[in-house]
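To fix ideas, we quote verbatim one protein's residues and C-alpha cells.
>
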Amino acid sequence: MKILIVDDEELIRSVIKEYAVIEGYTVDEAPNGEEAVEKCRCNNYDLIIMDIMMPKLDGYQAVKEIHKDNNTPVLMLSARGEEYDKLLGFDLGIDDYVQKPFSPKELMARIKAILKRVNKVSDKTIVGDLVIDNSAREVSIDNEKVVLTLKEYELLKYLVENKNIAVTREQLLASIWGYDFYGDDRTIDTHIKTLRSKIGKYKDSITTLRGVGYKFEYKD
C-alpha cells in the first residue's frame, strides 16, 4: 500500500517514513501542498498524511485540490489543536486528525484503522501491496493491474482469503469449479502454475503442500 507524507519539516517526514516502511508501506514524500497536489495527479495513493502549516499551499487548500480528482483518505497532522482547525479539516472530508507532537506508534495505529475502514467499505482484500478488488474483480500489485483469467482470479482470491491455511485440491475444485466438475487435480496445478507466473514477487507466497494442496503464506 502506498502512502504520501506531506510536511515541510524533513525530520518529521523521515520519522513517519521510517515507521511506515517497517509496517510494509511504500512511501512518497512532498515538502509542501503544491507538490503534494502534483504527486496526486501522477500517482495513486492509499492514504495521505497532510500537515496544515506549509509554504506555497497549506494543508487545507491542498486537500481541497486533491479531492477534486479523487477521494484518497487523509490523516491531517498539525501543531494546531484548536477545535476550529479540527472541524474545518473534517468539513473538508479528512478521515482523522493527529496533533503534534505525536507518537509514531499511535500514528501507525490510526493509519491502519483508516485503511481497514476504507478497504472494508470498498470490498477489497489486501495483503501487503497486493490488492484484490472484489467489486471490480480486479487484482493489482504496487498499484499496477494484473491481468488474470476468471479462474485465476478466483483461485488467488480463495487462497489469499485463507492465507496461512492449508487448502486441499478438493476444496479448490469444489469452491471454484463446483462439485460437478469432471476434471482432475492437474487442472488445479496448471492454473496455479500460470497464476504464479503473473503475480511477480508474490509467486513464492503460493507454496505447494505435497499430497495435500496449496497455501498462501504471508506474515502481516
Observations:
- Helices lie at 10-22, 33-42, 59-66, 83-91, 104-121, 150-161, 169-177, 185-198.
- The longest helix spans residues 104-121.
